[in-house]
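[Discussion] Sanity-checking designs against the backbone

I'm trying to build intuition for which residues belong where. Below is a C-alpha cell string of 95 positions. I'd appreciate it if someone posts a full sequence so I can compare it with mine line by line.
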C-alpha cells in the first residue's frame, strides 16, 4: 500500500509529523503535570505518546480520502525522526 504513493514533503506532511512527534507528547506532559501525577507516570505517558505514528493512519487516509498523499510520508518521517524525538524527551525528563 505504501509503495504505491510518492513521498510528499510539503507543509502538511511536516505539520503532521511535528504534531505527532513533538506537540502531542508535550501536551501530554503539561496535562499530566497539571493533574498532579508523579514524575515517573508523566515520563511514561510522554514517552509512550512520542512513539511514531501507526500505519493505520495511512489506511484511514486512503479509506476516507483525506490527506492520502501526505500520510505515507508522515508515517515515514515520523518513524525516521522518532529516535531523535524520543531520545530528546527521555533526556528532558531525565528518565
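Best answer:
Here's mine. Compare freely.
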Amino acid at each position: 500500500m505504501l509503495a504505491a504513493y510518492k513521498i510528499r514533503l510539503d507543509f502538511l506532511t511536516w505539520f503532521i509529523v511535528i504534531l505527532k512527534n513533538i506537540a502531542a507528547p508535550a501536551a501530554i506532559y503539561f496535562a499530566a503535570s497539571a493533574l498532579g501525577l508523579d514524575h515517573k507516570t508523566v515520563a511514561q505517558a510522554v514517552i509512550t505518546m512520542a512513539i511514531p505514528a501507526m500505519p493505520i493512519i495511512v489506511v484511514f487516509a486512503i479509506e476516507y480520502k483525506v490527506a492520502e498523499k501526505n500520510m505515507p510520508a508522515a508515517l515515514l518521517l515520523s518513524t525516521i525522526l522518532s529516535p531523535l524525538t524520543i531520545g530528546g524527551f527521555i533526556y528532558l525528563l531525565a528518565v
